[in-house]
Amino acid sequence: MTGKRSLWGSKAGFLLAAIGSAVGLGNIWRFGYMAYENGGGAFLVPYVVALILAGIPLMILEYTLGHREKASPPLAFARIDRRWETIGWWMPVVAFFGITLFYAAVIGWCMNYFVFSFNQAWGTDTGDFFMNTFLQVSDSPFELGGIRWPILAGTVLTWIISWSICYREVNHGIEKASMVFMPLLVVLTFVLVGWSMQLPGAWEAIKENYLTARWEKINPFTAAGSKVWVAAFGQIFFTLSLGFGIMITYASYLPKKTDIVGNALITSVLNCLYSFITGFAVFGTIGFMAASKGVPFAEAIKSGPGLAFVVYPEAINQLPAGQTIFGLLFFLVLIMAGLSSAISLIEAFCCSLIDKFDFSRKKTVSVVCVAGCLGSVVFTTRAGLWILDIVDHFVNNYGLVAGGIFECLLVGWVLKAAIARRHVDQVGGVKLHKGWEILVKFVTPAILIVVIGFALYSELSGNYGDYSTKALLCLGVGWLVGALVISFFLMLYPWGGAKLDCEHEPE
Ligand code: PHE
Ligand code: NA
């Protein structure tokens, strides 16, 4: 790096940025549905076990790696062993091409719906509006069928906002933005939760569908129950933004004396708490809608985009008062949760390029954002929803989890878990228990391998989402392999100067 690596201005700034990355669309539109499908209140058991056995240890690991090497993923990996650099690139490259490009488009959808909220432009048939009027979806992933201009407008705006945040040094850009986004997000979320919970029928639905524990569903010795456990581990990764090198990057800007364990605990626990609390809003709102339309709850609830863009508008239509404000509030929450995650994805990729090529931050971020915006255009076409769904499936089930396995092997075996742990203890704060070494070396990677095995098995037993095999191979497998090829070429380029040497304190 030319000049000194910039640092977070404060401990709170770092934490808010890290939590901002973790708390994203997934907390709002994925967690609640997962809980509902997988045992209601009982789902908290596999979820918390996954948090303890994989989430927190990996969060500590990513923080340690970034902090010890003061580096983005490729540089951190290369400093430990040059041969691992390809993997160090693969994580931010997969994240950028596999998540950021469509994340920006989805935030663009949210911006459109924010505007629609003013007069409930989605009309009475919200499902038909979303698919046929708004997205105008085509018949297959290969039928692009032209650009949807309102979506493109929202997507471009998302890129401009992200650019204007990331192009400043982290302590001015991302830190300041997080200091605004996160408190606002918390306040608005609480308003939304409070409002939803007092709607007629809300509390009954919450109790019945969200909190009641259906223990038989999580019995790991049944076929269905074991899938619940695997799903919990998959979700923990995604929800904590692990496996993409984001937390490595954010931790590389931490000052020398840092409480790594404390920060990892706070980030992980607050993220999961946010999901749990938001669940009250989701179940309350859907419960109210189901009750007022007289439909069963099971028919009303959806996951992902269907929840935000079909079910929520439908529920808003039923509100006795304050429809506009409720809509604005909900979509603003989504936009803020989304933006604070998007900037972390962009930062991890840009920081990697800056570390390797010594480009200036302003130029790198500008070029990356223009290129990213062009890449996002694919997701603003009429095939956008399909491509997004396939890419998301493969990146989450394989890319992310594979990234986690590699990290465990690198830190656990190549660097040696004991050295990493000594680093954590040396730089201050809560001491790291020796059990962490066992988790990182054996337990966590073993669990993650099982998770990938399950995913592969169900992949082979039927095409995901009924897409054609060609679509799955090109867009899913192709995306991951393409990222690997790009990473390999990035690795070949030599590191300038003495960059691979990092001065470590004696450990
Ligand atoms: N953690 C985010 C969520 O729960 C998703 C995400 C993953 C964002 C990785 C950035 C990077 O929605
Ligand atoms: Na999350």
Q: Count of helical segments?
A: 20
The helix/strand order is HHHHHHHHHHHHHHHHHHHH
Strand content: under 5%
Taking all residues together, what is the mean pLDDT? 94
Ranges where pLDDT stays below 50 over 5 or more residues in a row are none
Give the proportion of residues in helices.
Answer: over 70%
> How large, in whole angstroms, is the Cα Rg?
22 Å
Shape type: globular
Q: What ligands can be seen in this structure?
A: phenylalanine, sodium ion
Measured distance between first and last alpha carbons? 25 Å
Structural class: mainly alpha
Strand runs, count: 0
Note the main sheet. none
Identify the notable features of this structure and list them briefly.
binds phenylalanine, mainly alpha, binds sodium ion, 0% strand, 507 residues
